[in-house]
Predict the structure.
Amino acid sequence: MKLPLVALCGRPNVGKSTLFNRLTRSRAALVHDLPGMTRDRSYGRVTCLSEEGEAEELFELVDTGGLDFEGDDVIARGITRMAEAALDEAHVAILLVDGHDGLTTGDEEIATRLRRQGKPILLVINKLDGMKGGAPDGGFYGLGFDQVLSISAAHGAGVPELIAAIRACLPFHRTPEEAEIHSLSDELRFAIIGRPNVGKSSLTNRLLGYERSLVSEIAGTTRDTVDTVFHVRDKVYRMIDTAGIRKKGKTHEGAEKLSILKAKQAMARADVSLLLLDAVEGATHQDAVIAGYAQEAGAAVILVVNKWDLVEKDAHTIYGAEEDLRRSLGFLHHAPMIFLSALTGQRVSKLFAMIDELAEAHGRRISTGELNRFLRESVATMSPTPWTASCPSSTS
């Protein structure tokens, strides 16, 4: 039995990410005035205090990208596909609309498609503080949903009533055993970092075995950090796919600067960072800058050389490539390196063993006494042997 899943859906810029952050009490979802900021699915847990004063997990919430069924570009189609995938696996859907804009044809289209899912649906009118006369457009009630709630995600008005309404729709709760399995303290957290278009989202999808992050040839497709919790051989991992970090001089949009900030925050909460490098382009100055960010964040680093399938090679190519990369990233000479292909899956399965080993080594703590003994033994081993200088006798 899994934790019930609730999906947030609606048009772009109706406040889904703001509501997601409010319900999960986090800043996990990137919020910006620019429409279409959310492109991948973001998951978070919604909790409340029980009568005993302990945190009780209620449900898992998934934030989706804005649904735009008329969009014909590859990003719009991809966002819609990802949102529909979230709705397919959800037990309850929240249709969020903008009370300030009033009912739109886009809202009507989404409502029609949601009904086909045959799942409990809550119509939630957001931006209560911006509604004319303090009352929502009467057209929303014409959509025919049984439950219509008005809230302000930005200020929290009506949110407790929304949580109560969601709880009434939930089919089940997680057992104590499952709650223990999913404890945050048991998670091994690793972040996938790198420049735009080195294959971070492709590697995310390959590791999970399904399309979790939107993949496109357009640089900067991923804007937010995307967390995914999953199991491999009874071990719990939290994988964090981050936005590509470009050179400072090329980050003009405020939204992109926020994405970079979120990527740095992801490195800070990760045990291990996988720095993706492009096997065809080799290591660049920007790769070194990102590696420096990871080291400053205190995470262990694995150098993951992606797109190895595109390199013409012989039996010695890999040794020459490793030597060149280590020369370019000299301060990471100690970091383990792996050559793989997220596209074909070559060597991807070996990553988990490397992550486990490095996380264990990185988390190991050495006492002051042990360190002092090691230093004394090392100094004793390296000390020069006693030597007495003698001068040859002079002869006349």
